[in-house]
Amino acid sequence: SAVAGLDSLREVATEAALRWAISNGQGGGGYVQGEVGWLDLGGGTATTSTFGSRRQAVEAVWGRTGGLRLRYRLDRAASEDDGLLSTSTLGTTAPREDGVFLRQSAEAALPFLQSRLTPSVAVEQERRSQEVARLGQTTADSLRAESFAFLAVRPGLAWTTPRLSASASIEFRQEEEPLAGAFAESTTGRTLAVEGSYRPSSVFQTDARVSARRRSFTNAFREAGRADTDALAVRWTTRATPLRRAIAFSSTYEALTERTAIAQETYVLVGPELGEFVWEDANGDGVPQVDEFRPEVTPLEGTYVLTFVPGDDLVPTIGVRAQARLGLEPERLIPRDAPGWLRALRAVSTQTTVDVQERSTSRDLAGVYLLDPGDLQTENTLQGRFRLVQDVTLFPGQPRYGLRLTGTALTRTSQLAAGRERGRLRSLRADARLRLLDPLELRLDLGTERDASTSDAFSSRSFDIRSRSAEPTLAWTPSPAVTLSGGVAYGRKENRTAIEGQATGATVFRLPVDARFAIARRLQLTARAERSNVAVEGGSATGLAAFELTDGRGAGTSYLWGGTLQYTINAFLRASATYDGRAPAEAPTLHTVRMQVTAVF
Questions:
Q1: Measuring CA to CA, which residue among 168, 172, 146 is closest to residue 159?
Q2: Which of 588 and 508 is assigned the larger pLDDT?
Q3: By CB neighbour count within 10 A (0-12 exposed, 13-18 middle, 19+ buried), where does 329 fall?
Q4: Is pLDDT at 238 greater than 90 in this prediction?
């Protein structure tokens, strides 16, 4: 097959491929494939700068069922740049650059013992050279820093059964980099990789992979400031659902050594489509400051996005991420005619989640890898988090009533260019529901929370807010297509670490109303409105502390309203329109509208 095209930028691309399939009719077969390609940019005359590239590739595969398997692939690409892609600061044509990319790989595997034991060997070679000609000369004579070459040999052994599969390989790798304008041996490395999977039944499975690498530089590159490195990567996942899924357990563990830069927090103006943060000029200087951004309250309100820009210096770090989740549903195991005290357990289900993340410069590798609490979120931590969530649900199968209790414990630490920030959250929530009549349902949400944060750089991010809240709601559902709900929300918050001039507390009253109307699979309309009154005590509240203290509403009386219309035109087209409005007490009214048409084929 062949494809060629010409666009308005004077770009011509041509590609062709030819494959020959081979089969001996005795369980063996393969193919041989050849590829060629051309790419030309620019004019192609003697007075016009051009860039050209030529590519060739060949691949051969052969194998027999339960027998020897062979694979080989060779890729080569050559390019010539007469200055079209790079010019000097004075506008003159840059020196000529010639590049050659060569990569080849070969692999052989031979199964034994009914294809259970499979030794293999793989070889990879790559050479990427970018040569620059001196001004006034036509021959290339100097390698650019981007040039690179390596040769790797990787023998391996794999064992495969219906329940167990395991493999191990060791890679010997030699790399070359430019030194004084020519290739020179830079490093030698050894990588050991072990991988396994065990699936004894449908209710249990575990997978693990461990890779360790040691990389040593030659003396010439050590004198240039390069240092030897050791790296370790671990991933282990487990899932178990025994006792008819009455117990559901899953876990993930990942560990990685890497070089990381200390990041700088910054906000980029991107518009309401992608924005999630709002800038409020607290000091009136017209210049956005990092501590003057808050999360958006209504959709499409934010016009900035938070991003982290890495610094220039890299530091060696070790990163760990571990998560475990345990769910218990006694209803799946205990029969309905069990004794009274045992039958009561059928009305309870729980879920426990533990999440640990750590990126640290600590030298105590074992302490971090084994999740020793004494080595987590210390002065060596760049990014750290510990989260524990406990959910208890009473009467999960009852449609008329139920109760859910949720407890959360969270600690976080981050080291940014501006300084260190620490946070701690403790919360307990109770959500109850009771269907009084068929169309009426009463809901009650109760909560208590302590949210503490300290920042070395910004005083508005240092607070210790303790809050209590209650929100009764009455929902009326006269038909499956219509739902109306309304209630009152009360919140009392205190800032225990407020300094002179800062707000010491706030009382929040909200009156939310929601409505939903739907025509089966065709039209759906949702509307919402809210009136809130926030009384701030003490001094003024600014920044993130003000956002947390007032639930994002701000001091005084404010209003929120909006609606969403979703319409299914046909099986392929869907249309939606969203409108949101916000009227703060001491700021202009904000309106946002978004309309969207989606095509699904």
A1: 168
A2: 508
A3: buried
A4: yes
Going by C-alpha positions, the residue among 33, 40, 53, 49 that lies closest to residue 4 is: 40
Q: What is the CA radius of gyration of the chain?
A: 32
Helices and strands in the chain: count of H runs, count of E runs:
5, 30
For residues 573 and 601, give the distance between their C-alpha atoms in angstroms, rounded to a whole number: 9
Amino acid at 54: R
* CB neighbour list of residue 446: distance below 8 Å, 6 or more residues apart: 429, 430, 469, 470
Work out the average pLDDT over 553-576. 90
What DSSP string describes 74-125?
Answer: EEEEEEEESSSS-B-TTSPBPPPEEEEEEEEEEEEE--BTTTTEEEEEEEEE
**Residue 38 and residue 52: Cα distance in Å, rounded?**
8
Note the pLDDT tens digit of each residue in 258-305. 888 888 889 999 888 788 898 888 777 888 888 888 888 887 788 899
Over residues 74-98, the mean pLDDT reads: 66
Dist. CA 380–CA 248, nearest whole Å? 35
Please report which confidence band the pLDDT of residue 310 belongs to, taking 50, 70 and 90 as the band edges: confident
156 Cβ contact partners less than 8 Å away, ≥ 6 residues apart = 119, 120, 121, 122, 167, 168, 169, 170
Out of 89-93, 190-194, 542-546, the most confident range is 190-194
Angstrom distance (rounded) from CA 123 to CA 428: 57
Q: Which residues pair with 80 in a beta bridge?
A: 52, 98
Residue pair 50/40 in contact (Cβ under 8 Å)? The answer is yes
Report the predicted TM-score, pTM, of the whole model to 2 decimal places.
Answer: 0.78
The DSSP code for 358 is E
Residues near 8 by beta carbon (within 8 Å), at least 6 away in sequence: none
d(CA 196, CA 238): 12
130, 135, 139, 141 alpha-carbon torsion, rounded to 10°: -50
Overall size of the chain counted in residues? 601
- The number of angstroms, rounded, from the C-alpha of 381 to the middle of its chain's C-alpha atoms is 20
pLDDT of residue 8: 46
Q: How confident is the model at residue 47 (pLDDT cuts 50, 70, 90)?
A: very low
- For residue 213 the two structure tokens come to 């690498």
Q: Record the tokens describing residue 85, joined without a space.
A: 């892609």
Tokens linked to 563: 């609606």
Contact 313, 262 (CB under 8 A): yes
Q: Render pLDDT for 329-375 as a digit per residue (tens, 0 to 9).
A: 998 988 888 887 788 888 999 999 999 999 999 888 888 999 999 99
Q: Work out whether strand 50-64 and strand 97-109 pair parallel, antiparallel, or are unpaired.
A: unpaired
Q: How far is CA 381 from CA 253, 266, 364, in A?
A: 19, 20, 12
Q: Tell me the C-alpha distance between 302 and 300, whole Å.
A: 6
Q: 41-70 burial, b if ≥16 CB within 10 A, otherwise e? A: bbeeeeeebbbbbebebebbbbebeeeebe
Long-range pairs for 164-172: beta carbons < 8 A, 24 or more residues apart? 164/196, 164/197, 164/198, 164/199, 165/196, 165/197, 166/194, 166/195, 166/196, 166/197, 167/194, 167/195, 167/196, 168/192, 168/193, 168/194, 168/195, 169/120, 169/193
